[in-house]
UniProtKB/TrEMBL annotation:
This is Uncharacterized protein. Keywords: Membrane, Transmembrane, Transmembrane helix. The chain crosses the membrane at residues 47-71, 83-101, 138-159, 171-189, 195-218, 250-270, 314-335, 341-360, 367-383, 389-407.
Length: 441
């Protein structure tokens, strides 16, 4: 494995370099610049070259990074570490809430309304579970109550796990909250990503193997992106703990793949989709997102149309992958032999796969957010290794992300300004207005 990784990344570097030299272009849809028609640009080759070079250098440094880190670390906690980390996390949540909070948008209703009973097969498990509420399941505020509950349970569970862990991972999470990803976490309330992260967090923290395997197996039925988030990080956690894959865990991964196939192969009939859309529109207390019906429910899966990253995002992608590389170093630094390189490789896969969604989906800032969140979870899995040099490197990488990366919000929203008038306006008026009004998009 220590030879395979450099060879693979060297080949990747050569391929993308040749594509640039010979002027090969790919369809590129610049959604970040409000472009709606693909044009041929070398953006994919530039991104591929940068990331391949990063990963090549990282693969060559795996052994040297391990040698730089002392084997024995002091287990003595910094004085007042619990109090300091608690204060920073509370302040981080307040900061992130102010910067990014909004009520769930109407697109997110689609993750929780369609059900198998309606003849819908794609991303329909959430709606199937809520089918017991009858026509009330179409109500905006019922769905919001479910979405906010998911958000709260996810964060409460993660904080509980953090305070069972070391100071270093808590400090890293606090910086994550102060970064653009913190505001985006609140801006993304309602998206199915948070449900998948909740399932993943339960799967990697519970001691009940039956529960973890069950959640992993069904996760793609909520959304196909579970294959890009839940499965790789869950697999990494098993390998890191040194567990051999039991039959039950192999079955759960196989069932997850079958669940994924159900979502992308089975197609709802046009009459079922039309009937459901009519029922949805008649019972909802908000405008129906017909684009969700036409682009998600009426088709099997999203097909490649164009790369959606813009050239100005290349640096952001490079920094995001750099954070992921440090997390992969963290997870593999104490391992030996082939296991070290296996952990490193899977750690890299965990942070590259979410970025790969930019080949099929135009929410490019969302994919960057999911990648940096995946890095945070990889840091969490390998938190016992966050000592000395690797800890300071992880802090530096997340601070670099905070300083240089900007995430584009949905529906024309922007991070709120850090000024006294803006903060005062949010506390006195804007927050209550947001909570009272149903979004238009």
């Amino acid at each position: 494995m220590h030879v395979i990784l450099p060879v693979v990344f060297t080949l990747g570097t050569l391929v993308f370099a040749l594509l640039l030299v010979f002027g090969v272009t790919f369809p590129t849809l610049l959604i970040e610049e409000n472009q709606r028609t693909p044009i041929n640009l070398p953006t994919l080759s530039k991104i591929g070259l940068l990331l391949s070079i990063e990963l090549l250098i990282a693969s060559l440094l795996v052994r040297k990074i391990s040698a730089l880190v002392a084997v024995n670390y002091s287990e003595e906690k910094p004085k007042y570490s619990d109090l300091l980390s608690s204060i920073l996390i509370v302040l981080g949540y307040l900061f992130a809430f102010y910067r990014g909070f909004r009520m769930p948008n109407l697109w997110t209703m689609g993750y929780f309304v369609p059900s198998y009973f309606d003849g819908i097969y794609r991303r329909a498990l959430s709606g199937t579970l809520l089918y017991v509420f009858g026509d009330l399941r179409f109500n905006y505020y019922l769905i919001v109550a479910v979405q906010v509950s998911i958000f709260l349970v996810l964060n409460i569970l993660f904080i509980r796990e953090l305070f069972k862990s070391n100071f270093e991972i808590r400090l890293l999470f606090a910086i994550f909250l102060f970064s653009p990803a913190g505001g985006y976490l609140f801006h993304e309330i309602g998206y199915v990503d948070q449900l998948l992260l909740l399932l993943l967090l339960i799967a990697i923290t519970t001691t009940n193997n039956y529960l973890s395997c069950f959640l992993v197996a069904i996760s793609p039925l909520f959304h196909e992106e579970a294959m890009f988030i839940v499965i790789p990080i869950y697999s990494l956690s098993l390998l890191f703990r040194g567990e051999k894959l039991e039959k039950m865990q192999l079955y759960s991964l196989s069932l997850a793949f079958c669940s994924f196939l159900i979502g992308i192969i089975l197609r709802s009939s046009g009459s079922d989709v039309a009937s459901f859309a009519m029922k949805w529109g008649l019972n909802a207390n908000y405008p129906l997102r017909l684009d969700y019906v036409s682009t998600v429910l009426a088709v099997r899966s999203t097909a490649f149309a164009a790369i959606h990253y813009a050239e100005h995002q290349i640096v952001a992608l490079g920094i995001t992958v750099f954070v992921g590389i440090i997390s992969a170093f963290t997870i593999s630094i104490r391992a030996t032999g082939g296991r070290k390189y296996s952990l490193f490789a899977i750690g890299i896969i965990c942070i590259i796969l979410p970025l790969g969604l930019g080949l099929i989906g135009w929410d490019t800032s969302r994919w960057i957010f999911l990648s940096i969140t995946a890095s945070l979870l990889v840091f969490y899995v390998g938190r016992e290794n966050l000592k000395g040099f690797i800890f300071y490197a992880s802090l530096a990488s997340v601070l670099l992300f905070s300083a240089q990366v900007k995430l584009r919000y949905f529906d024309g929203y922007k991070p709120r300004e850090l000024s006294s008038p803006a903060i005062s306006s949010f506390v006195r008026e804007d927050f209550f207005r947001l909570v009272r009004e149903i979004p238009k998009l």
